[in-house]
Specification:
Blueprint (H helix, E strand, L loop, with lengths): L2 E6 L7 H14 L4 E5 L7 H4 L10 H5 L10 E3 L2 E8 L12 H8 L4 E5 L17 E6 L3 H10 L9 E9 L1 H5 L6 H8 L3 E6 L3 H7 L11 H9 L6
Parallel strand pairs: 1-5, 1-6, 2-4, 2-5, 6-7, 7-8
Antiparallel strand pairs: 3-4
Length: about 240
């Protein structure tokens, strides 16, 4: 059974998909059979970065309905031989929880299953998590993002799994101005461990436009992402 990494956020614009993509690419480059499940519905963007926007015709909703075979709805990422992309739904808002049976089937096909959950959602079926699985909550270290994350974490975490915060789009100037908070403050406020801090990086959207995930960008973010994510994969 593959390990599950559920990537979520309380609000948009914090880099949730950036982190999910980076984790999936890290895992694939480490030689692990990896599936990235984009559960963002019409707001999905992982296929654009992976160069698969014109290739996707089937989704997990089709598989769950019996209209498609599982393998037909898994799309290989050309640049990453160990990575395949799946979408919960290409057209509608279908939560990962609604596809729990299909997601369980994905476990047997990979070593690492990364789920990019819809913004504002963090719930999965309790039986889908084990002690080795992780929920990564992505946020900016500012008041609005912390408040939305606090609401997100209000739900009970499935037994055995752990939650970790990843502070993204941090800016030292905003920290000095009191508009962002340091990792210790965020950790104490939300009573949840901080996995790492990733600085604001203008090269990320430029890299995405060229089909390169943030983990391969030319700016400072890639180092911080690598240091935060690689230890999770035990490599």
């Amino acid at each position: 059974m593959g390990r599950v990494f559920a990537v979520c956020s309380g609000s948009g614009g914090v880099g949730k998909t950036t982190v999910a993509l980076s984790l999936a690419v890290c895992a694939s480059r480490a030689g692990k059979r990896t599936i990235l499940l984009d559960a963002s519905g019409p707001a999905r963007s992982a296929d654009l970065t992976l160069g698969l926007s014109g290739a996707l015709t089937l989704d997990m909703a089709d598989v769950a309905a019996g209209d498609a075979a599982m393998e037909a709805a898994l799309y290989p990422a050309v640049r990453y031989p160990n990575l395949r992309l799946a979408c919960a739904s290409l057209h509608d808002e279908v939560t990962a929880a609604e596809l729990s049976g299909t997601i369980l089937a994905l476990h047997s096909l990979c070593d690492i299953l990364v789920i990019d959950l819809p913004t504002g959602q963090a719930a999965l079926e309790e039986w889908m998590f084990t002690k080795d699985d992780v929920r990564i909550v992505v946020l900016r270290p500012d008041d609005a993002s912390i408040r939305s994350t606090e609401h997100l974490l209000g739900g009970a975490l499935p037994s055995g799994a752990q939650s970790l915060l990843l502070l993204n789009r941090t800016q030292s100037a905003l920290l000095r101005a009191g508009q962002q908070y340091d990792a210790n403050t965020v950790q104490m406020t939300l009573d949840c461990p901080v996995l790492g801090e990733v600085p604001e990086d203008k090269t990320i959207p430029l890299s995405a436009a060229k089909g390169r995930p943030a983990i391969e960008c030319d700016g400072p973010a890639w180092t911080a992402l690598s240091q935060a994510l690689m230890p999770l994969l035990d490599v």
